[in-house]
Every structure is written in C-alpha cells, then in structure tokens.
Amino acid sequence: MQCTRVLYVPDRRIDTFGETRFNFRLITEPMDEVGVCRVRSGWVEANRPRILRPADLRGVEIEGFGADAARFFEWMEAHGAGLKALFQYGFCFSRSEVQEELVHDTVREVEDRVVNEALSCGDPYRAVISGVDDAWEVSLLGFMLEMIQKSHEINVFDFRRRGLI
Fold first, then answer.
1. pTM (2 decimals)?
2. What is the DSSP-derived secondary structure letter of residue 125?
3. pLDDT tens digit string along 47-62?
4. Mean pLDDT of the chain, nearest integer
5. Using CA atoms, how far apart are residues 125 and 13, in angstroms rounded to an integer?
6. Four-CA torsion 53, 56, 60, 62, nearest 10 degrees
7. 142: helix, coil or strand?
8. Which of 3, 42, 8, 35 is nearest to 122 (CA)?
9. Residue 56 gets which letter from DSSP?
C-alpha cells in the first residue's frame, strides 16, 4: 500500500447515506517486463452497511476481491492504522469486472496519458491510481481508504445536520 499513489483524485467524495461508485484506472508495471505497463479499469464501490450489525459481527465486507484484499483488511484491523471507526461502523467494498490492457510505453508516459484522459472526460468519479502489479487489489483498496479519510469531514457534517450525532 505504501507504493500506491493517487495520480488523479475524483471530484466527488464518498456519500454519507448512499452508495458511491468510482470509475478507476490503475496503472502498474509488471515485474518481469521492461517498457510495459498494465492499465486496469473498472468500477469500485463503497456502500454503507445495509443493516446495523451487532458489534461482534461488524467489520469490512469485500465483494469481488481476492485473498490479498482480505489479508490486507485483517492486517489493518490488527494494527489499527487509525481507522477504528471503519471497522466499528462497517463498510462494504465491491468492484466490477476489471478490464486489462498492456501498453508498451514507459510508466511515466502512460501515467501522463491516462491522467490527461481523466482531465478531459469530465467524469467527477474518475480516479487514476498507480500501484504494484502483484498487489493491485491492495492498491485499489488503499485508494478507497484514502477516499474515506477525505470524505470524513463531510460525512460527520451530514450526520450532525440530521441530528444523528
């Protein structure tokens, strides 16, 4: 997760009371090839819990992610990482089928091109992420955790405005 960089941050944040779908492009460099990048694209969604669960059943749910993502959240929960509320409240992350494209160019050129596409498309939910090829799902979840942190103030304001806290 330390190698994950968000190159283009969506204009929108995670909705307090609904579902939020980000349209992502994730750029990685295969370890066994030089001058090649992998560009993955798809949707990743953050949902509030659909039902309130007892404390012993709370936690983060992930749909469509592999074993690396599950181990990542187990590690996050064990080490705190300043996200206790995330695990107490619970969240559901899901992702769509991911499209992959191999691009024969330098990482920097591919990143610049994909960011320029994001700038010109006008999609407020578009994100461009750079990560590690073998752990690309962890990079995607790292992006989602960053968006949760960026959305925190707005979400707290919404709860207060509705008298929920």
1. 0.74
2. T
3. 765 444 444 444 556 6
4. 80
5. 8
6. -90
7. helix
8. 8
9. G
Dihedral angle at the C-alpha atoms of 56, 60, 66, 72, nearest 10 degrees? -90
Enter the tokens of residue 146: 């960053």
pLDDT tens-digit series, residues 81-124: 555 555 545 566 788 889 999 999 999 999 999 999 999 999 99
CA distances in angstroms from 93 to 20, 23, 73, 78, 139, listed in the order given: 10, 14, 11, 19, 13
Closest CA to 14 of 71, 86, 98: 86
- Quick check: 19 pLDDT over 60? yes
> Which two tokens mark 104?
């024969």
Task: Name the nearest CA neighbour of 23 among 4, 10, 6.
Answer: 10
pLDDT at 9 over 60: yes
How high is the pLDDT of residue 98?
94
Q: Which position has the token pair 């695990």?
A: 87
Alpha helices for 104-135 (secondary structure H): 107-121
CA distances from 20 to 90, 142, 152 (A): 15, 16, 14
